[in-house]
Amino acid sequence: MIAEKEKAIGVFDSGVGGLTVFRELMKQMPKERLIYFGDTARVPYGSKSKETVTNYSRQIIRFLRTQDVKAIVVACNTASAMALDDIEEETDIPIIGVVKPGALTAAETTKNGKIGLIGTEATISSGIYEKYLKEMHPHVSVLGKACPLFCPLVEEGLLDDPVTTEIARRYLAGLVDSGIDTLIMGCTHYPMIKDTLQAVVGESVVLVNPAYETARECKTMLSGKDLLNEKEIELGSSAYQFFVSDAAEKFKTIANMFLPLGILGAKTVPIEDYK
User: Fold this and answer.
1) Which of 27, 84, 114, 135, by CA, is between 20 and 30 Å from 255?
2) Catalytic residue among 147, 151, 187, 218
3) CB neighbour list of residue 128: distance below 8 Å, 6 or more residues apart
């Protein structure tokens, strides 16, 4: 039987965006085995109801539990905003979302108290970032903007494309004019187009990447529970595993564009069977 510390960390997202978190976990915890699930059949989550997103999250967690993971990272802002509270109560292993770490960093980063937030419609309307930011920085001003087209653009691999740049200009014009000095990329897809976003908002605006902060928080959490793996892992089929609910070849193409190590492929899982 595998030792608890040597078990993998489960990571899930609505699609490919959670690979930004996966990459940070690889960098910050190189001794950890990681298992990724991307719900590519049902992406995007941002336009779906809280009930639907929560049910999807439950199914994915049931699947990840069959892989005997020691902890779960909800690498999706929409699922973190809409489902995390419910699934935390139902899960007996450590679980962490991406919202709190990102909000904390933004609160610590801003100098003028004007913070921009971009995300899915569900994340923006939930008010969850503003809630956390106000708790940490009562006088902060939060200006949110839903950017629903960014997710499908990333899923299609249009990471450096004139269409993406034009959409970014249209979405972000109001935020730039408002005088923000900090911008939270409130969807894990968005760091994949970070260079485009930075060019549009200008160098004076600090982009906050919740993926980096989430990996750091995950490491702290596992350390506190004495769950960090202490053995070197051998790179191979069991070190990093990838699962999707559809379009495995497309996922593989984008993953190989983004991750530092090439992946051999992703297995397709009938996720709706995990009810």
Assistant:
1) 84
2) 187
3) 80, 81, 99
